[in-house]
Amino acid sequence: MTEISDFGQIVLVVALAFSLALFGRAITERLAIPGAALFLVAAAAASDIVPELREQVSFITVERIGVVALIVILFDGGLDIGWRRFRSAAAPILSLGVLGTFASAGLIAVAAHTLFGLSWITSGLLGAALAPTDPAVTFSVLGGREIRGRTGTILKGESGANDPVGIALMIGMIELATSDDGSFWTVVREFAVEMVGGAAVGAAGAALLLPLMRRVSLPSPGLYPLRMLAAAGVVYGAATLVHGSGFLAVFVAGILLGDRPLPHRREVDGFLSSLGSLAEIAMFVALGLTIDLTELFDTDAWFEGLVLAALLAFVIRPLVVGALLLPVRLERGERLFVIWSGLKGAVPILLAALALIGGVDDGQEIYGIVFIVVLFSVLVQGTLVPVVAERLGVPMVRDDQS
C-alpha cells in the first residue's frame, strides 16, 4: 500500500502543477505577459527554494522533453501552414530559414568572441543555439489571435525551417567541438545529410500516410487525433534512422498533409494545438528547474546573455532579416513586425541541453547565457508583440474567426 500512496502523491503534485500552469496561462493572457516567461521564472525560483527539484530534472530529461515538444509543435505548424500557403511565401521562408539562420549564427559568434573573449568554438555553439526563432511563443502572446496574410505564413514558416537548420548546425558544431579530427567540412557534411534525409523522409511519409488515413477507418472519432500523433512520431523516427533531421521531416510532412481533406480534421487540429501548448509549458518548466539562479548571477553569464539578447533584438535580426526581406513584397509595417517577432523559445533550450550532453567545453556557461537570452526575448520582446502589431497595423483575428 505504501507504493500506491507514494505514487498517489506524485499524481497529486503533477496534477496540481498542471492546473496551476493552465491557471497561469489565463492570468498571463489578461495581463499581456507571455506565459513562457512566467513558467520559466517560476520554475527557476522553485528550484532555488527547493533544490531537490533541480536534482530530479537532468539535462537529458530536458533534451527529451524538448524533442517530444518540437515533434508536436513542428508537425502542427506544418499542418496549419499547408502546401498552398507555403508555396505563396516559399522564397522568404527558405531564405530566412536557411540563409538567415547561418547569418544570425555567424554574427552572434563574432559578437560573443569579440565582446567576451570566448573561444571560436564556444562562440559558434552559442550562435547555433540562439539563431533559431520560436513563433509558438509569438502566437501565444497574441492573446488567441492569429496574424493574417503572408506575414503570419512567413513567421511560422521561418521557424519551421530554421528550427531543423539550427539543430543540424548545432549537431555539426558539437561534433567539431568534441572530435580531434573535426573541421569546417564536418559541419557542412552533417548539415547536408540532416537536411536531405529529413526532407526526403518527410515527403515520402506524407505520400504514404495520406492514402492510409483516407482509406482506413477507426471505430471512434477520438482515435483519429491519436493516429495523427503516432504518424508524426513514425516520420520523426524513420528520419533519424537514416541520419536525417526528424524535425525537418515532421514539418515537411505536416505541410504536405495540411491542405488535404482528412477524416475528423477539426478534432485532429484541436488536439494537436492543445498538446503543443502543453509541450511548450513543459519545456519552459524543465529549463527553469535546471537553472540555479544564485549561481547564475554570481557569474558573467547574465551580463553576457543580456548583451547578446539586446544585440539580437536590435541589431543582428534587423540587419539579417531586413536584408533578406528586401526583395519580398510586404507593407512596411508587416516587414517591421517580422523583424521584431523573432522570439527565442524551446529550440535554443534544446540546443543548449544538447551542447551540455555532448560534453563540450563551457557547456554550463552556454546554458546559462541561453537562459538569459530566452528570458529577455519572451519577457521584453514578447510582452511588446501585441503593442507592436497594433502600432504597425498588422491585421489579426481571433482563432475562432480564422
For the structure shown, list the relevant keywords.
single chain; 402 residues; mainly alpha; globular
Query: What proportion of the residues is helical, as a percent range?
Result: over 70%
Q: How many helical elements?
A: 17
Detail the poorly predicted runs: none
State the order of secondary-structure elements, H for helix, E for strand.
Answer: HHHHHHHEHHHHHHHHHHE
Strand order of the largest sheet: 1-2
Beta-strand portion reads under 5%
How would you explain this protein's 3D organization?
By secondary structure, this protein is an all-alpha fold. The protein has helices at residues 2-31, 35-49, 51-56, 59-88, 90-116, 120-130, 135-140, 149-178, 184-215, 223-241, 246-258, 265-289, 293-296, 301-324, 332-340, 346-357, 363-392; strands spanning 145-147, 396-398. The protein has a two-stranded antiparallel sheet. The mean pLDDT is 84.
